[in-house]
Amino acid sequence: MPPVDSSRLVAEVVGNRFLRDNHLDVDDTVRRDLSSRIHEALVTAALTERKACGEVCASRSQLWQSTSEANDTASLLRTEARCRANEALVLMDEILSRHEGGI
After folding, report:
1. CB crowding 60-99: b at 16 or more within 10 Å, else e
2. What is the pTM assigned to this prediction?
């Protein structure tokens, strides 16, 4: 079974419910256009949020990297800071490269 494009499915369901709830009788072309526009809005919002989350991870990584490089950082904290900096970069990579259901 092929993977479900969840964002397209949500767009179609929302569009159809909107048309039904407002008693709008439209042809399939308008129905598809509405679904496509909703999908585009969902994708744009998701990608914008994903980029913002990636930027937070990059910022946290830089903070921990700076901590690990500071002369007055204790040895144990230096190791912890390097680990956290690396973890933030791994999370950033995962967040920015994630692709699920068209988003």
Report:
1. bbeebbebbeeeeeeeeeeeebeebbeebbebbeebeeee
2. 0.77
**pLDDT per position as a tens digit, 11-49:** 999 999 999 999 999 999 999 999 999 999 999 999 999
Residue spans per domain, the chain = 6-97
Q: Cα dihedral sign for 26, 31, 37, 39?
A: positive
Instruction: Kindly give, in sequence order, each residue whose CB lies less than 8 Å from that of residue 38, ignoring residues fewer than 6 positions away.
Output: 10, 11, 14, 15
Contact 10, 101 (CB under 8 A): no
Both structure tokens of 39: 């999908």
pLDDT of 101 strictly over 90: no
Looking at every residue in the chain, the average pLDDT score rounds to: 93
pLDDT at 5: 82
